[in-house]
Write a structure and sequence with these properties.
The complex is a heterotrimer of chains A (572), B (308) and C (624). By secondary structure, chain A is mainly α. In chain A, 68% of the residues lie in helices and 1% in strands. In chain C, strand 7 and strand 8 form a beta hairpin. Classes of the chains: A mainly alpha (572), B alpha/beta (308), C alpha+beta (624). Chains in contact: A-C, B-C. Chains B and C meet through helix 2 of B and helix 4 and helix 7 of C.
Amino acid sequence: MNWNNASFVRKVIYLVGIAVLLLPIAALSQPATAGRGQDRSSGGKLAQLRAQYRLAQAELGAIDPASETMKLATVGLRGVAVTYLWYKAIDYQKRKDFTGLELTVKQIIRLQPNFLKVWDFQAHNLTYNSSVEFDSYRDRYAWVKKGIDFLILGTHYNRDEPGMLYQLGWYVGHKMGRADESKEFRRLFKDDEDMHDKFRLQGVEVDEGFGYDSKPDNWLVGKLWFDKAERAAEYKSIRSKSPLVFYNGGPMAAINAAAAMEKDDGIFGQRAKYAWSVGNAGWVKFGNRQLPTYLGIAIQLNNLEALQASHAATEVRLDALAPGVREKIRSEKIAALPKRELELWVKPVKDRTAEEQHVAVNFLGSKVKATNEEVAARVPREKLAQAREIADQLQRLTQEMDMTSRYRGTVNFDYWRARCSAEQTQEALDAREQIHKAEELREANRSLNDSRENYEKAWENWAIVFKKHPQLFDSIEAQELVDAIDHYADVLGRIEVKFPADFKLKELLEMTEQGQRLKKRLDTLQAIAPAVTPAQPGEKKPESTENPAEKTKAEEKPAAAAKDAAPTKDEK
Amino acid sequence: MPSQLEAPDVAKAAPASGDVVIETRSLTKVFRDFWGRPKVRALNALDLQIRRGEIFGLLGPNGSGKSTTIKLLLGLLFPSSGQALVFGKDATDVAKNERIGYLPEESYLYKFLNAEETLDFYARLFNMTPAVRKQRIEQLIQLVGIQHARRRQLREYSKGMTRRIGLAQALINDPELILLDEPTSGLDPIGTREMKDLILKLRDQGKTILMSSHLLPDVQDVCDRIAILHQGELKELGAVSELLTVQDVTQFKAKGLSPAAEDEIRAVIARHGGELLKVEHPTLSLEELFLNIVKDSEARPGRRAQQK
Amino acid sequence: MPFEHHIIEYWEWMLPNLSEVRLLDARSWSNIGFLMGASGVLLLLAFLFPFLWFLIAVIKHGPSEGFYLVAKSIYGGITEDLPGFSFRRTYAIAKVAVQEAIRNRVLVGFAVFVLLMLFAGLFLDVENSNRAKSYISFVLWATNCLVMLMAVILSAFSIPNDIKSKTIYTVVTKPIRAGEIVLGRVIGFSAVGSVMLLMMGLISYVFVVRGLSHTHVLKADSFATKADPTGKREGVTSRDAHHRHRVIMDKSGNITTGETESEHGHFHRIESEGEGANRTYKVGAARGDLIARSPIFGKLRRLDPAGNPSEGINVGDEWTYRTFIEGGNNRSAAIWTFSNVTPERYPEGLPLEMNLSVFRTFKGVIARGVMGEITLRNVNPDAKVKSSPPITFESREYVAHRFPIDRKLKIGKNPDGTDLTMDIFEDLVHEGKIEVSIRCIEHSQYFGIAQPDVYLRPSDSFFFVNFAKGYLSIWLQMVLVTCFGVMFSTFLSGPVAMMATWCAIGLGFFGGLARDVLTNLVTGGGPIESGIRILQQKNTSSDLDVYLPLELAIKYSDKAMLVVVEGLTYILPNYGNFDTSQFVANGYDVYPDLVGQQLTMAVVYALSASIAAYFFLKTREIAG
């Protein structure tokens, strides 16, 4: 040992330095080991942080060797490699080489397993874009399945990621249940044991998602995924997803399950009622959930009515402080209207055109309205502070009401609430069953009279339901009813019965474009007086008097005779 | 096995008979750097003629242009100006290679081949039938004395052995003209002796040999004519004997003379007006001593030196 | 065919089609034919290089001397070296090259390959629905990369190492020509590479076949208890290798086809034994995944709905390889004309196979494919029988749909009740030609076709042979790389020669990109502009935010560089042309014309590179 040799001394110092540095490095980066008892260790600081923030691959043995090897093999050029692979993937998609696309996507996620957008995008790509390129529904189902498998793989690398779990619920629920091939998809899903097993391995108890036939229903299983997502959201952020949409997933899945049960599977009665009640319960729970808004305040969807009542009461309190002020302000404002607007304002309602009416109500109405601030400003001096306070309270309430109603609109809250309760009524249940039976008979072209009876009973039931829940008019379900009415007309045509003049759901026909067309067709055939103003459901229309012979001829082929110039006498 | 371990005879001044084998006319080589600027003028207007059957030595200190000349003659370098002709044709002509052999400074051979494969490879490059080829390979291995290592890869050879195999490849085609670049540098005295004997033998077989060296004693022993180069220029050219013989000094070497005889001779010299320069017992050259001891040692192994 | 494939016959490729060449449209230049194109390029180089050489010689030695030198070298090369060429000497060099390669432990590359194979299971996606394709692609790609790498390293370092260590002195001073040195090395390294390739090929073949082999278990109780409306019952096999097969049992309880349904690109044969409750099924090995179809292609022409010739409709795909014909009650059709249709070749009728694409403008009947019809037509307008009755079929996408057409087609009933038939060969084939017209009969749905999509498939070649052809292509690439490596190594030092060879390979693969950028098919500019865009993180369509003069300077220098690169792409081989892995992986025979084209190209390039290498080595001052 030549201590005088500077080079040697330096080398010794370096070695000692390296050894010293190794100690903190080891402490920091020691991996956690999964095991039992003695073997288990939570590892160094980094591993503990990883576990704490629920980042993946914190334990030895849960590491994916292929992924790690590939990352190493790119020797720091991971970004370049990934870019190249993305180009390849896009190229494969362009050339419709979907097996190549799948391969490349799998390679991409091996290099970037924790990049959530990659999973999101490519799962979507596989499930939506690639699947539709296939003609056979089986192939499409296979590709939807691939997307789902792909996402499940993603959950291994990114545990408890609410967004990903939500997406899984969406694919299992909506992609399968709302596609054009929904009937086939749902059927395939029921029997897809492999997928059920896979789900069970992920902790989704498929058995809890059984439909009426003790086989898993895609909507209910989707709901299980949504539930899992909600549980994950308790301790992990849902990132950039909107909470409203996020928490809407589960309840809607339950509702869709109930609807699908009646529509696709033909199950009615008590079981359907039970399903709807479950949906309703879920919806109520959803309504009671505290949802943060971008304004910073949290709202509850169920609260709107209470808020409105509170608002009205508070307004009364304000007015009590300054009686008469409100009307005074209003008349001042009316007086201050420019001449033309004033003329319009004072015009009686029945003389206004539709456009003028619209302008008067929306534009002028809000113009002449007295705001709470103005009222509060005119409160006598001593009560000013109190009035201000009330005005502020009103302002907050208005804001909250505004957000609540907006959010309600986004998820169509009123409609679904109404629907949940409406569908549970006996009338609705009966009506659905009757239409189903009627359609069945019509398809088989058997017992057309029974078919007609069922239809007519259904119309009566529906009329009752619509009366109680007028919100149901404006929906896709209502549109489908119009289809049923069309089929009803067809059945009538086949058994050569004329379309009833007192058709209960005339209003429904007028609500939709398709219904209007149908109505026109029926009118030209059967000389029902077209309604000028929206009529009350159930109102009787004057019967038309026609030549029975002509009637019979015309009824032979109602569909083809749309342009038929069969002379019919209109009677107003 | 090694040829006679004797003190070398005085090289016979063999007559340079016949045609000119190598000729250089105003041969110049200037090494340029990457940009074309002249870096080193290695050879400057060299005029040389080498005839068939002689051993020609190129002498000079390091960097005088000896190796450059040989490379120019082989076509490994292209002349900057002037000409180099071998067998009357330009040095870059490939056909002449059939008749020449070349031993480079260091034996640059493929290290991953063994002796047999090396010689086989080089032999194949010549126009010989396989039978002749095999025969010559065998002959040469015997000649240079590497039978014991014929299957070993060349990377395991000692310096002397690589020299020998290098020599073997130079002779594989029984060439008319052999160019040797520093043939004896780096060899031990035995090896040097053998090399010199071989060169002489080749000359006796009628071959022409051009060798370059800076080891003066070796050149003196072997060469017929020499050229001395210095900084790329030819400084002296001529037969060894003529150059080296000091004309007006005579040397007698006699055996069995008594001191009286010595005196008588002294008187004779004085009488003829000559100047007696030196009377002494001649010393053996170290080389001779060394060789004698080695020969003795091989004859009687086990004998140790006596402390004197 | 599922991959883009343009069939070019050998003589069509070789000979010029001058009517298609437009001077200003660079993409049409390929119509000039290989013969003229290669000759043109070679002649150009044959004048360019000596000229450059002459210029350099003039600078060094003065005009007359320079000219004399160049002329003498070339003349000498042709008159002396060429006749003096000796295979014996070349063989000697080759032998040493092989020994050098082996003893320098090039087998390390082979060891890497074996290791890679062993780990391949980690990288390969075993759940992929076309495992044959991914396995074959993988082995071909891995072999290709490794062999090229080996070839580059071997060839680029050999001569420079010789020169550096001066072992070349004792070689060039023997009567050996520069050409023999070059060719000897090329042959030697190619031999080593060939042996490696052979071994890799065998191991790959075993890997693929073993990796894909599997079987399933089918039990009698795997069938549904309830039959569907047509009386068929469906069952499933066990789940092996990440998939199951459906099995369809007909009314009588037998599996009519004797096979499982196709899944993941293959099927299995089923043998049944026993009766009733004791019925057992034995599922055979996978078939249909390792195949090599030998299609006989026809010539395609398309008709628009009015019956006029058209190019087809683009339904919105970026990839324009396939165009579409409209379905419905119109004259839109895709008509293939097949030649050499004789009863000897196709004794049982036309073995048609289709790879159609389908585009639905509305979903229609979801559970069923879009319906089409095939009509066989006579090319002779005066024939007695002009066409066959239409044969309807249900289209299947993304599979090669086998649809053999019987020789005898039923067209009605005779008065005595027997069937009235027509014979394809007697009635419809005229001078060995027949037209196959395919239409879509569903309104508002479209069929997508390209010329290689519909073909006759009389018999298949052997997969092993096709696999070997894929390896032949790799072999050709290796030989080319070796030639170019040796060529570069004759005048560059070892590492620089290796870099140059890599660049040549890269240019070969990516040369098309330079051309596309020049013709503005791809936006984003040349090297400097792209560099700036990357650093500034701009995309390809936004403006460069630099001063206008600077921008112009950048654009022009980029253009100059790209022109040089494009020029080089015409000189250097495009290795993409030598890639037949798509054929092998997708199960199509590498047709003989393509093999011929590749061989021709390889020979021309190899010879040119060797000649260039010869001149480079000859004029080089070895000891300088």
